[in-house]
Structure formats: C-alpha cells, structure tokens
C-alpha cells in the first residue's frame, strides 16, 4: 500500500521541523567514521525535501549545526563545515529548478568564512523561489536566539521606543529568527532520542512531537509520510476541550 495516498492533503502541516539525529551511530554500525554518516545524511535531506514538496509542506526547518556542536572533535567539526560548503554550492541549481527558497537562522557570523559565503550566495540566488522554504539552523541554539531577542527588546526600552508594557508575545516573536514564518506544527526527531536539544523552544509551544527510532541516514520519504499521518490523527486543542473544536 502506498501510504502517501492515505494523507489528507487538506491537513498537511504547513511547517515541519526536523532534528536529524543518528548520523554518527549509523556510520559506526557501518564500520565507518562519523563524517561518513553525515555525508549519507545529505541524501535523507534531499528525500525529505522531495516528499515534503509533493504533499504541500511550505516550510522545512533542519537543525543542521547547533552552538553546542562546536565541542565535538575538531576533525568532525572541520569535516562538517567542509561538507556544508560543498553541499550548498552543489545544490543551488537543483534548488532553483524545484522552486526551493533557502533561508538560514542562527549566528551565521560565527561560521567559517567560506561556509558563510556559500550560504549567503545560495540564499541570494534562491530568494525569489516560492514552492517550498528550506530553513537551515546553523550555529543555532534556542537559548542564544532568546538571549538575542531580549537584548533587542532591552535596547528598544533604553532608547524609549517601547516601555515594559509594550512587551507582548507578538513583540517577542517578531524579534526571533523565524519572524513572519508560522510556528512548526510538527517536529520530527530521529534516532530514538526524545528531547528538543535547545531547538526552537519558543516556537514549539504547541508543536506536535514525533519521535522515531530510525537513524537519520535511513530516514526515507515514507518515514516523513508516516509522521504526517500520525500528526493528522492527533487532536490539537490549544488549551480548549474537544467539544469546543466541533
């Protein structure tokens, strides 16, 4: 049975966030170095993007590199940065062909210059595309994002733009990295881990979580479809009771 045909296309989440976990463990099972798992994980990103586009998802946010990942072995960090540069540079034409707009969130200035330059070039070249948006969280952590937002709000208070009564949920959201982008309705984490790992803490207040034991390099199109189907069978009440949703 083709599970894609069981998806209700009128109830597809507009924004899906993904924590791509398990690359290193997958590589170890193959008797390979951890970086090999990350390189194969790029194929899982391509497949997920293809599947998401087909069912009408509009935003895909990939947790690609956290601020905490700098503490990994230097050889792995260097390899990851090199992989990102090569991947971004080689994918731009394909992204344009498929109408993919590339966006990044995180402390981009903290990335190596060659990685940042390729990223910025790809963002500029795809900025007019509107089929689907791919958001790469690079050198990102939610605590960093919230801290930056608070600093911006404090500066507005200091210069008299607003007072404390002007601090609202909407104001805070507008100072976050994903301003003008809907919060994710569905977050998927692979490899069996069940935590957010400092990812989109503000935006995931009412996000549905889906955890799978599948390691990221093994994540296929049907795995995304299964997560969406699971999401579609949930009742999203936002603090209300079931009877209020009828």
Structure description:
This protein has 246 residues and is α/β, with parallel strands linked by helices. The protein has a single domain, classed as 3-Layer(aba) Sandwich (Undecaprenyl pyrophosphate synthetase). It is built from 7 helices and 6 strands, in the order βααβαβαβααββα. It has helices at 23-29, 34-55, 74-97, 113-125, 142-158, 169-174, 221-232; strands at 15-19, 59-66, 100-105, 132-140, 186-189, 208-211. Strands 3-4-2-1-5-6 form a 6-stranded parallel β-sheet, sandwiched between helices. α1 packs across α2, α2 (34-55) crosses α7 and α3 runs parallel beside α4. The radius of gyration is 19 Å and the shape is globular.
Furnish the topology, listing elements before pairings.
Elements: E1 15-19, H1 23-29, H2 34-55, E2 59-66, H3 74-97, E3 100-105, H4 113-125, E4 132-140, H5 142-158, H6 169-174, E5 186-189, E6 208-211, H7 221-232
Parallel strand pairs: 1-2, 1-5, 2-4, 3-4, 5-6
Helix pairs in contact: 1-2, 2-3, 2-7, 3-4
